[in-house]
Amino acid sequence: GAGVSQSPSNKVTEKGKDVELRCDPISGHTALYWYRQRLGQGLEFLIYFQGNSAPDKSGLPSDRFSAERTGESVSTLTIQRTQQEDSAVYLCASGLAGGLNEQFFGPGTRLTVL
Amino acid sequence: GQQVMQIPQYQHVQEGEDFTTYCNSSTTLSNIQWYKQRPGGHPVFLIQLVKSGEVKKQKRLTFQFGEAKKNSSLHITATQTTDVGTYFCAGDLNSGNTPLVFGKGTRLSVIA
């Protein structure tokens, strides 16, 4: 079956522009996670959805970052007024609810802010 | 905040040598998961440990969960170049009611 997909795979933007990143989770997965990974670094948790509600937004680095999810389907991560420090790979993962279930990661979107 | 600490950050080994990465939490974990990320790739689930003192093996990989469920280790015997990548542990601190907390990972390089 299809895995988690993300689009675009690469995005180059100019400082100050807004960007929207998309994640299509595995069908039936109620949990969806966004992470940021800077070059050579670990996974930085951004936000978690259970269904279309976001019980944990604690990782969003600033009010320029927001995310939405439609039902138990597609999620979009929006970064407004991008800054150079936003350059990173943004990874999405989905899974069944609960910590006993593994997370399936998408291939990521590589964002470069010039 | 609650953290899962992982050491070492980097490890360079000669092919055939063993490798171990360690994961420690300040609080008791409900379970712990391990992921591998190949260079240029995305994290892929390896295994989950749930029980105190649990040991699981996958070919040359041995995973352990401490008796107190606060630490875990991944040991690779006789490393191969295919083992190259970053290994992450991820701890469940709240029985699935909060997201996993990932360690910063250990990047393994294997010199042929």
Would you mind describing this structure in some detail?
- The complex is a heterodimer of chains A (114) and B (112).
- The mean pLDDT of chain A is 93.
- Chain A has no helices and 11 strands.
- Chain A has strands at 5-7, 10-13, 19-24, 31-37, 44-50, 53-56, 65-69, 75-79, 88-95, 104-105, 109-113.
- Chain A is globular, with a radius of gyration of 13 Å.
- Chain A has 114 residues and is an all-beta fold.
- Chain B is 0% helix and 54% strand.
- Chain B has strands at residues 4-7, 10-14, 19-25, 31-37, 44-49, 55-58, 61-65, 71-76, 85-92, 101-102, 106-111.
- In chain B, the strands form 2 sheets. In chain B, strands 2, 4, 5, 9, 10 and 11 form a 6-stranded mixed sheet that branches. Chain B has a 5-stranded antiparallel sheet with strand order 1-3-8-7-6, with no helix packed on it.
- Chain B is globular.
- The chains are: A mainly beta (114), B mainly beta (112).
- Chains A and B meet through strand 10 of A and strand 4, strand 5, strand 9 and strand 10 of B.
Instruction: Give the tally of β-strands of chain B.
Output: 11
Q: What is the gyration radius of chain A calculated from CA atoms?
A: 13 Å
Query: CA-to-CA gap between the ends of chain B?
Result: 40 Å
- Specify the helix fraction band of chain B: under 10%
> Largest sheet of chain B, described in full?
6 strands, mixed
> SSE order of chain A, as H and E?
EEEEEEEEEEE
Summarize model confidence as the mean pLDDT of chain B: 94
From the spread of the alpha carbons, the general shape of chain A counts as: globular
- Gross morphology of chain B is globular
Largest interface: A-B, 23 and 27 residues
Keywords:
heterodimer, A: 114 residues, mainly beta, seven-stranded mixed sheet, 11 strands, B: mainly beta, five-stranded antiparallel sheet, 0% helix, globular
